[in-house]
Design brief:
Oligomer: single chain
Helix content: 55-70%
Radius of gyration: 23 Å
Distance between the termini: 42 Å
Largest sheet: 5 strands, antiparallel
Strand content: 5-15%
Number of strands: 12
Amino acid sequence: MAKEDRSIPTGRVRRTAQVGTVIGSQGARWAGTRAANLTRSKERGAAEIDKRHLEAAERMVDTLGTMKGAAMKIGQLASFVDTDFLPDEYRELYQDKLAELRSEAPAMPWKKVRGVLEEEWDEPVEDLFEEFEHDAAAAASIGQVHRARLADGREVAVKIQYPGVADALRADMQNAGMLMRLAKAIAPGLDAKAAAAELQERVLEELDYEFEAQNQRAFARGYRGHPFIYVPEVVTSLSRQRVLVSEWVDGVGFEAVKALDQPERDRFGEIVYRFCFGSIYHLRHFNADVHPGNYLLMDDGRVAFLDFGMTKRLDPEQVELEIVAIDAAAAGDPERLRVALHDLGFLRNPKQIDAERLMEHVMTIGGWYLADREVTIDSRRVMDAITAAADPRSEFYDLMRRENIPANELMGRRMEIGMLAVLGQLHATRNWHRIGREWWFGDEPATELGRAEWEYFAARGG
């Protein structure tokens, strides 16, 4: 059951200060611990360091969970991206604690839940539902989910937006300019102004659950009857701007999936890949919020995908240009790749870019699905891709300074890195390139899942 909520801080200055206070206080405690360890035995010193790491992780989860909004999303992302910036022996501790933000974030009490429902619905809760559980089944960055039963017997998930979270999220987005300036320093080629506008638009869309319901209906139609992908149906008549009602789905979460045998994790990883990347080519529409709290493994082997608050639609021309770039990279043609990336908007002055070095950069980031061989995704591959994409310590930093990330590609890159991190947690192995060729070039299915999917779309005329 989710933990109890405290009021969400909504002001930009207060929210920035709250994160700063946690960082500052933990820094002071670290300094005190290190100083005290000078007079302690080695064993006692190690125990105190362990205690300090645990306390820091718990404070981080507590603060980000209470803040919710964009700040909490940062914690959710950190929970499934392996990082080299933590000592090996403590990395799993931080990830485990931050993983609580995916399913056990602090929840608001029933009194506040009821207040939102009464503002959104004309009828009392008791008249609309046969049963409505007062305790939250899950709590996330924007809202929390309650299980309920309609009068016709259908089990449903009712997502209710936190009171005050709209102001909190807008406060976070007022910091987008600062965040983009930071991103500009890390990745100098980033079009900071356009990226800030794109980020604000995508994130603020999450506040409108009616817009999310529209997205979810589109994905549910696109995958209705699919052999291994499932998107819950929306109960449109009860969905409002701050309330989203959809079919309840039973299944196990990501932590349980990580405990499965490797072949089952490989299969799960392939399904995630086929949904996240495949939606671009099947629907020209993808879900940019890929954190694993949005996945459930159902008893029949299908994977249910939840939460469609941050999605992105693509123009056919953009998809076609991306396939041209993928073809050039896979074929090992640096000059053709340079032209393709210029056409996509990634290069302002392509003649200033060394094509061979550009090819090396692209393969470091995306080689896991561009190389025609089986690839196991591990933490080293994840960190190499993240470093090559955005870290000033990267050997490609001089190249990054001359590159550009178009605003309309920002969410796609976010999805790609997030999905890679999920696959890394699973240590999933596949020939990701061969699977991708099914979408890019119409190649024959590369796996058993591919054959089932091909039959599905063929039957639908796709």
